[in-house]
Amino acid sequence: MPVKSLDEWADLLQPVDDFLGSNLRSKLAGLDLLNVTRMTAQRKDGHLSVYLSPSGPVPRYKQDCSHWCLPGVPDAWNELLYALVMRRHKKMGARTPNTEEGDGDVFSRPS
Fold this sequence. Notes:
This is Protein trichome birefringence-like 10. The protein is mainly alpha-helical. It has helices spanning 6-21, 37-42, 73-92; strands at 96-97, 107-108.
């Protein structure tokens, strides 16, 4: 199975794009949407079809894009999610990460 082009993924993304462009957007003011579909579709390691064996598909238990290449696709998602969380905390001005205190709490109030 060949890797899908971005044009082929566009059909899957359209409902999300339509929803976000609708008049419901104002009701979602506190919601951040992290759409990783397009980014994942562009990554070579986001598609198992690249790793098919010459004799056909690899066994089903080996078809796990979450753990196929490390660091991989989920690691990129986690980096984006972490950046989003940190941006939200910075906007709120409430807490900043502090891992040096060693109290087990990774967030502490700024001095």
